[in-house]
Amino acid sequence: MAASVQPPASLARRDLERLVMLALEEARAERATQAEVGVSVDTGLSVSVRLGEVETLEYQRDRGLGVTVYIDRRKGSASTADLGVEAVRETVRKACSIASFTAADACAGLADAELMARDVPDLSLSHPWEITPEAAIEIARACEAAALAVDERVRNSEGASLSTHRGTRVYGNSHGFIGGFESTGHSLSCAVVASEGEEMQRDYWYTTARDWRELENTEAVGRTSAERTAARLGSRKLSTRRAPVLFAPEIARGFFGHFLAAVHGGSQYRKSSFLLGAAGQQVFPTFLQILERPHIPKAVASSAFDNEGVATRDRDLVSDGVLQGYILSAYSARKLGLMTTGNAGGTHNLIVPHGSEDQAALLRRMGTGLLVTELMGQGVNVVTGDYSRGASGFWVEEGAIQYPVHEITIAGNLRDMMLNVVAIGSDVDLRGGVRTGSVLIGEMTIAGD
Q1: CA distances to 135, 144, 150, 188, 191 from 221, in Å
Q2: With contact defined as beta carbons under 8 Å apart, do 94 and 23 qualify?
């Protein structure tokens, strides 16, 4: 098989820019008032092994073009996986035809022209990994082998996986804006099973990066997955109680994700948020900040412009615990009588600044309580803020882990939980679009036996 999993990026990008311009010209010819076009090509390689044997070896090549037109505030959208010239033209015609059947919406349309990105910085998002399938398989095998060598109780495996992909994306609209970029993503993961007597536990670990050279060490990923799994053996249940709860960083990211869903423009104008109209209100303790920094080189969620071509910018979403505004696209902003925040498609690198205490220090501060390392279920109501999810982790006494726990439920209300955040740990997880350390919450209900 070929060593490289993607074509030259520069040629692909020029071709995609030409397709975008072709589609916009066709939209003008069809008398569209406004139009926007997005086109992408993605290639990738993924392998997985289990107990040393190859389970999957996949090569992906995906492509697609989407067109949205506005004819007197009536919207029509169409898409195609065929990037041939005639297919692109037909897709535009279909979008215009659809628009003729839709109702006019005063809030529909492109973001304002003056908000388009002018200068597009190089954010170092593309670092191709020219790895052969054979080499990828060996890395996955080495990761799994390292896990199985950690503890004799780790006897089985759900496998180790390596994936690498590269994408090229171009967006343009009838304001004259056209912009594109190449990006890459690479990951390595391992999940194993430990057993002792009749008890079985599983856990995992993973690493991900834009630049494959910045992935965590192969053997370290395997060892961490095994250590996390073995630590869960001997799990107990708890009696129902109220106690402080410490979310591990990978869990804390989801906690902040619920907050983001509540302040998203769609939730606000649909009036389906427990933080309805909360801009300007105290929603976190005064020590807590949430910062959006879209231009961090190599970061997972970096982007110079959003899905509507609007320039992204640094922003303090929460300052001294006070919500400064919402997460808005052009449409949701118009529905609320506001201006887009450059968040069509989501946020770009949210950072929760932390103190000097690592997770061990936060355990000591907590004293007695629950360290949560896994959550199950979808028991979160963004309309009311009610929160109830299955959990597992470790019971802590006198600032030290005593034993693993499982089959419990943690419950509360998100608004109360947010105001009751006690501290943010320095053990920041950089693997997602929200960068946070462990989060200590003063008290929650822990339901068990």
Answers
A1: 17, 9, 12, 8, 10
A2: no
* Alpha-carbon span 39 to 41, nearest angstrom: 7
Distance CA 206, CA 48 (A): 13
For residue range 249-302, what is the model confidence (pLDDT) as tens digits? 999 999 999 999 999 999 999 999 999 999 999 999 999 999 999 999 999 999
Domain spanning 9-230: which CATH class is it, in words?
alpha beta
Within 10 angstroms of residue 446's Cβ, the number of other Cβ atoms is 24
Residue type, 242: R
* Alpha-carbon dihedral sign for residues 263, 177, 27, 339: positive
pTM: 0.91
Q: pLDDT tens digit string along 339-384? A: 999 999 999 999 999 989 999 999 999 999 999 999 998 889 999 9
Is the pLDDT reported for residue 8 higher than 50? Answer: no
Contact between residue 151 and residue 230 where contact means Cβ atoms under 8 Å apart: yes
Residue 389: per-residue pLDDT: 96
Cβ partners under 8 Å of residue 51, min gap 6? 144, 156, 157
Per-residue pLDDT tens over the stretch 43-87: 999 999 999 999 999 999 999 999 999 999 999 999 999 999 999
Q: What are the residue boundaries of the structural domains of the chain, listed by start?
A: 9-230, 235-449
